[in-house]
Amino acid sequence: MSEENSFIQPAVTGSRPVVAIIGRHNVGKSTLLNRLTGKRMAIVADMPGTTRDRIISTVVWQDREFTIIDTGGLIAEPSSSIDEGVNLQVKEAVGEADLVLFLVSAADGVIPSDLEVAEWLRKTGKKAVLVANKADNPKRETAAVDFYSLGMGDPIIISAYHDLGIDDLLDHIIALIPETASTGQEEENLLKIALVGRPNVGKSMLLNRLLGEDRVIVSQVPGTTRDAIDTVLNFDGDPVILIDTAGVKRRGRVGKGVDKFSVVRSLRAIDRADVALLLLDATEPATAQDTHIASFVQQAGKGVILVVNKWDLISHTEQHEYNQLVGERFKFMPYAKIMYTSAKTGKGVNKLVPEARRIREERRKRISTGELNGFIGRVVAGQTPPHKCSKFLKVFYATQAEVEPPTFVLFVNDASLVHFSYQRYIENRLREQYGFEGTPIKMVFRNRGED
Ligand code: GDP
Ligand code: GDP
Predict the structure, then answer these.
(1) Could you tell me which of 445, 436, 298 has the C-alpha nearest to residue 367?
(2) Is 199 in the pocket of ligand 2 (CB under 6 A)?
(3) Which of 109, 265, 396, 430 is 20 to 30 A removed from 451 (C-alpha atoms)?
(4) Regarding the domain delimited by 185-363, which CATH topology (the fold level of the hierarchy) does it fall under?
(5) In the CATH hierarchy, which top-level class contains the domain 369-447?
């Protein structure tokens, strides 16, 4: 449990700039990501179950916020081949990032594959920064000068492990990424739904279903990102914004286009949405890529509906088995609602938007401080609190600091006593009492008196 989450920052609604870290295996990408995450100041409490292989994170620096991706995490099986860092998924992420950090190791010096990657990066024309990691001592700092030979200018010299040069790196990043585009007040209040999922699950077909009944008010809203197409729909008299990552594939040509899965495109769409409809293919539910996207939705703190599509291909007696199967594979988000659709026949499709609307209401619920403290008091009394030797966790005071997603801050005597299972215990009780169905909730434990 982190003690550094020191103040609360309202959720940013526009799509955050994306910074991608690339580099060979073992240069320190994951260490850097975690180091940068540690620098954040907003409450971005880790979601249980997704921290093992964290590959994305939100960083806040000087009032600016960006998303950082460790592209190493996009490679399923790191191979030992020299071009391992430049596989397809990585290329995709780099292509759509706002800035690339090319991480090299000052402990190893320039190696041939660094030259290849630098050459490739140059060709992409991407804004990129060379970062020499593992410069733990003056000797290595001096050695980092060799990296000039990569033709990328001054390397920024850091030690991710020892926290050297990181502030300087953050200043550089902030100077190079675009400001977050702020969304208008109008759009602010409309329900925003992102349609995400791996290729071929039926996103385009579902979209056409949703658009099909003369609901379109405005298609392709100008001024929105290049990564997704926004459509404003009239749903039972209420406008809804549909953020559609499949829209890059031509509408009306369902099934014919080749839809490349793009991590960055999905991330940005999720980032701007209130609720993500994560489409799964009923004939092949819960692949690794599906759970990957789910973890993005969770880390972004967004609402989610797991939409099991192509339901027409499955015999309907199997629904309870599916609930079990999907529930098991997505058990890190037990709050997710599972729904069944057939984009082909239209079955179930019209229930999605009303459910998304309901989830947004759940996300906006606020529990008064008085009520919450009474409740937490009873919950804490209901079970022996965690302890180390004779020191027991004490909760002095709790407050709901934020909505969308609901965020609770608990002031305690010693945050390090709080374990995952205890956090889960409180979360479960909160959900039993107050619902919050379909949305993650965040909990932050702070030591009292450390403001
Ligand atoms: P990745 O494969 O690029 O994600 O690399 P990791 O972040 O997993 O780091 C690989 C190894 O390098 C780990 O043992 C890290 O502890 C180590 N490492 C990362 N950053 C530094 C650093 O600044 N200095 C030193 N000496 N080791 C580091
Ligand atoms: P996308 O890549 O996620 O946009 O997927 P598409 O919408 O292009 O659909 C991929 C394929 O699945 C196409 O051949 C569709 O006709 C088919 N498909 C999509 N939804 C359904 C469905 O509900 N039932 C059936 N039987 N086929 C579907």
Answers:
(1) 436
(2) yes
(3) 430
(4) Rossmann fold (3.40.50)
(5) alpha beta
